[in-house]
Amino acid sequence: MVSRPEPSKRRDYPLFRTLQTRWEDMDCYGHVNNVTYLSYFDTAINGWYLDDGLLTMPASDALFLVVENGAHYFGEITFAQIVHAGIRALKVGTSSVTYDIALFTDEDETACARGRYTHVLVDAQTRRPTPISGHRREKLEALL
């Protein structure tokens, strides 16, 4: 049996990104579809990368590529809710970073979803892993 993590609390996360649900995120069950949660994780992380200068698209020398992800669901998200994505780094390696991301709706203190995301930094041209250093490493380590 796979162990299921507990829902996270807002206080567990040093960084938040705000996302707006969209009408197209909904499924026939009346809530945001489960695959959309992964999109929220990706949007939150990549938005932070761009805002904090970890990536400069489209001319970035290196890119973060997803190599692993997954999610646990604890509650529903519906259309017109504001979603707050809490982000923390679990591990910053030589060329990879693993995140714990939690989604909170409105002002709720307990997460309705929690995900794990691993990115590898690769050279933009060769797509081969490259070391995380300088500004990128400082920003990532601040989330540990």
List keywords for this structure.
144 residues, Thiol Ester Dehydrase, Chain A, five-stranded antiparallel sheet, 2 helices
> What general form does the structure show?
globular
Query: Overall mean pLDDT score?
Result: 95
E-strand count: 5
CATH superfamily: Hotdog Thioesterase
CATH topology: Thiol Ester Dehydrase, Chain A
CATH top level? Alpha Beta
Structural domain tally: 1
Cα distance, first to last residue?
29 Å
- Compressed to H and E, one letter per element, the order equals EHEEEEH
Q: What are the low-pLDDT stretches, counting only 5+ consecutive residues below 50?
A: none
Explain this structure to me?
This protein is an alpha+beta fold. The chain has two helices and five strands, in the order E-H-E-E-E-E-H. It has a five-stranded antiparallel sheet with strand order 1-3-4-5-2.
Describe how the helices and strands are arranged.
Blueprint: E1 15-20, H1 34-51, E2 62-73, E3 82-92, E4 96-105, E5 113-123, H2 134-141
Antiparallel strand pairs: 1-3, 2-5, 3-4, 4-5
Q: What can be said about this structure in brief?
A:
The chain is of the alpha+beta class and 144 residues long.
